[in-house]
Amino acid sequence: MQEANLQLLKEVTESVALDSCRWAWLRLGLAYLDTGDSTAAVTAFQSALRSDPNDLHCWECLGDAYSSRGSYTAALKAYSKAIELDPDSMYCMYQVASLKQTVGQYTESIVEYQLILERFPDYVPALKGYAEARLLQAKAWLLQYLDGRVVDACEVILETLARAVGLQPRFSCLWKLAADTCSLVRRLPVEGLLVGVPDRLLQQRSEERHASLLGKDAMLSLASKCYGRALTLQPDCSNLWHDLGVSYYHQALCTEKVAQKTELLNKAVQALKKAISLNPCDHSLWNALGVIAISKEIGKLDLAQHAFLKSIEVEQSNVVAWTNLGTLYLIGKNPQLAHEAFKVISYLEYSEFIISGLLSF
Predict the structure, then answer these.
(1) Any idea of the CA torsion for 25, 29, 31, 36, to the nearest 10 degrees?
(2) How much is the pLDDT for 191?
(3) Mean pLDDT estimate for the chain
(4) pLDDT tens-digit profile of 181-231?
(5) Mean pLDDT, to the nearest integer, of 18-25?
(6) Contact between 258 and 288 (Cβ < 8 Å)
(7) Closest of 136, 199, 194, 190 to residue 165, by C-alpha
(8) Helix (H) or strand (E) holding 154
(9) Which of 77, 233, 235, 344 has the smallest C-beta neighbourhood within 10 Å, fewest atoms?
(10) Sequential DSSP letters for 57-108
């Protein structure tokens, strides 16, 4: 049916004058987009625009085609032209903000999202996009050791997400984004760390303007709760189970109570096992399980070895798993196997680790 539609539209565009078949070029471009042929779609939409350069929908579609092809600069120009024709086009405004976020222009993306929210304050995709852009910006600041800016960004993000979940509490992506934001503090020092968190995220109250100050431990605990909330909405998502397991792991690292640490690590192991049962072909899940199993409090070296080997089995060019496996052999006082594991890394065209050289002494 799809092929017949394409053939019919091609015949029309080839046999009828351009001015008389703009509709056919537009539909041909949409048909190409449906089949994944973005380049052909771009050509079709450009032909339609030659007939009418002021066709808003053609500019929107051209932007979609460029974006699908990965030509983000061209897509931005197309959407910007559409906004010139219709300044109220929320779709194009959102696409511009999203594309700037995609290409790493976080500051510009944030400004674009703010412009949307000034006009459409309850538009949940813009609230989510704004929070995502701020989170990516905060991660960049984290690498620059701008801890104060990171904390301020976390507060803004969580306030934005409190508004979003107030509008759409059943969107799991919003709860995951809140959890990712809370998890960001794991890289910050404990001393003096306090983050303002809206009560809506803590107790699902309606007064989202009311906030509580949380320290690092409480923030990491909230991260696990938010991942859990996301999982109630999307229980078969292996990535969410992975994130929950890693969250429990980071909680455990931040507590000095042995019993609590062990309990959290056991929860982490169970969460990662659940993730693996849902997606056993993801090497990162196996590797994460191995890292937690090798911890002092768990101490399941056999499980860790099995997990690292399964990770390598799934993805043989897995340098991280090979490195972890070598480290496991060092812990088990087996330097020969450790040397063999580290040596594989050089075969994979990576720089040889210093530890591999130390084993020769």
Answers:
(1) 160
(2) 79
(3) 88
(4) 999 999 888 777 899 999 888 875 544 467 889 999 999 999 999 999 999
(5) 68
(6) no
(7) 199
(8) helix 147-167
(9) 235
(10) HHHHHHHHHHHHHT-HHHHHHHHHHHHHH-TT-HHHHHHHHHHHHHTT-HHH
